[in-house]
Every structure is written in structure tokens, then in C-alpha cells.
Amino acid sequence: MKVLVAVGSKYGSTREIAQAIGAEIRSIGFDVDVEDACGVLSVEAYDAVIVGSAVYGALWRRDASALVRQHAEALRVRDVWLFSTGIRELKEPGYATSESEQLASLANAQEHVTFAGAIDYDRLNVGERAVMHVINPPLGDHRDFAAVRDWAHGIGVTLLYLALA
Questions:
Q1: Quick one: 158 exposed, middle or buried, by C-beta within 10 A (0-12, 13-18, 19+)?
Q2: Are 49 and 43 in contact (CB under 8 A)?
Q3: Residues 110-120, mean pLDDT to the nearest whole number
Q4: What angle do CA 38, 39, 44 make, to 5 degrees?
Q5: What residues does each domain of the chain span?
Q6: Which of 25, 93, 111, 160 gets the most CB atoms within 10 Å of its CB?
Q7: Which homologous superfamily is 2-164 in?
Q8: What does pTM read for this prediction?
């Protein structure tokens, strides 16, 4: 079974989460590709797809949302999971934007989860720093890789069950 983990990440912290997801599913024995969402031209070669995105202003990155929207028909006939990361998730665990809910419905996703992200203030541009000053989020790395691996392991077990059924 071939699995795609596609990700929209601006500064790389969400990409690292995607890589951890891919590594966990790969450790169970699946063939896994981890790709930036902007580089995915087709999902046809995959049996299962996991799409994740950093969330800015309650919206997914355009490349990740475009992947889901453009390939919705193909995704609906595959096993699909979605994940989001961002600062809002630090304040409201389990928070889902209306966009992420819409994308999950569009792709007929098995599940959408949210993970806390990471904010490296020094890497932000001037506009992003101004926003951070106003909303005053908790800066730093708040990613929980144990939770990420647990979620990915659950997907791997589900895929094993589906492969054997």
C-alpha cells in the first residue's frame, strides 16, 4: 500500500510534523512519500493520503487547500486524513477552522486533527511580527511529537486492517 503525506508549511515546523507522520507509518511497513503540497500533481498513485497544513488567520496555506480542492474527487475514493497546526491550536485544543471542516468534508476524510505548532519570532517578517505583537501568542516550539506519532500509528494500524480485509 502506497501512502502520501502532503504538507503546506511556510517555515518548516509543519513539514517536520509531516515527516514524523511519514516515518511512523513507514515503520509499520508502508511505502510512504512525504511531499510539499505544491509539488503534488496527482494522488492517483496512492492508496491513502494524509494532508496537513499550517494555519494562518484561521486558514490553511493555499497550496494545501488547493491540493484538497483540486483532487477532491480522487481523494473521496481513497482513505484520507487531515491535520492542521498553528498558534490557535495552542489556545483551543481540537479547534477546527471552518475551512478545515469544509476540506475534510470535501475529501471525505476519516478524521481531521489539530496539533500545536511552533513560532520562531526571529524568522517572522515585519507584518507577521506586528500580528504577533497584537495577539501575543505563546512563542516557541509547542509541538507534541509523541501525540503526532500516536496519531500516525493509529492511521498505520487502520491501513493494516484495511489491507487485510
A1: middle
A2: yes
A3: 88
A4: 110
A5: 2-164
A6: 25
A7: Flavodoxin domain (3.40.50.360)
A8: 0.88
